[in-house]
User: Fold this.
Amino acid sequence: MSKYWNDKVREIEPYVPGEQPKDRKYIKLNTNENPYPPSDKVLEAMKNELNGDLKLYPDPTCSELISEIANYYKLDDDEIFIGNGSDEILAFSFMTFFSKDKKILFPDISYTFYKVYAELFDLNYELIKLDDNFDIPLEELKKTNGGVIIPNPNAPTGKYINTESLKNLIEANRDSVVIIDEAYIDFGGQSMVEFIDEYDNLLVIQTLSKSRSLAGLRVGFALAHKDLIEGLNRIKNSINSYTIDRVALAGAKAAIQDTKYFEKITKKIIKTREKVVKELEKLNFRVLKSESNFLFVSHNKASGKFLYENLKDQGILVRYFDKERIDNFLRITIGTDEEMDILIEKLRLILNNN
Assistant:
């Protein structure tokens, strides 16, 4: 710990990303990456951008990408914001819409970056405890607050909340911003984007990292009433006007355009997910209902930590959370059919030898 750190750096507990070990080749089912590569059109667009124009700054407004996303979702350009991954947009959102004098609400078992940002920006917050079925108690999010943020589907549980329930939540919070983090929405749920014109306090955040196979590109986007978008731009342009580089802009635009490939691989992942659920249940796993590209599972005879460690020894990485209430669970990303077959076989062997 450096003597030059300020008090905030000393006290903060940073977000801990999933393992990215380099000691051997693993089947990586721990960070919710897409098992399939980006489309050929995306790669071609990025290659074409590798030219002398790299000496010039990228478009700070991301206008072409914004227009492409606006067209896809049938919104206006001023209802779209682009960020360096959805994590950056979340950080900007915490700075833009939440105040120190009003308590913000989010689930206790959820994306842990919410708590990190709340503490980093000295915000007052309350963790809303999931019920015994790991569902978010929406009524608890309707009490007086300075803002609400939830992932839908939730992470790490994978559970999805229907649009009617979320509309009721947004309606009950008209005096504060409700952020719906839709990183995994393309794997089975219905987006809240269609209700943006109805609710000026709704902010939807999505990413190209999951369903469009671009975790390594770092592009996310927010969709909301133009006044909310203007607020995000005021923060962004007070920190870094050029958050997205030229190559990323080209790749992201092509990814939005290539709907055929996007639909093909998301359907493939969903099909694999449903097949794996059945196989895990045959091995007596409890599998929470998932509308995401991962499963949240536990076993009544083998602990989460035991399974995690044994799978790692076998060359398979899954995510283990050493935290109260979920320390017996594993979060398993859906890989290719071949990868998931290997996972099931390894689990079978581990359980039989336990």
About this structure: The first strand starts at residue 27 and ends at 29. The CA atoms of residues 287 and 297 lie 5 Å apart. The two ends are 42 Å apart (CA to CA).
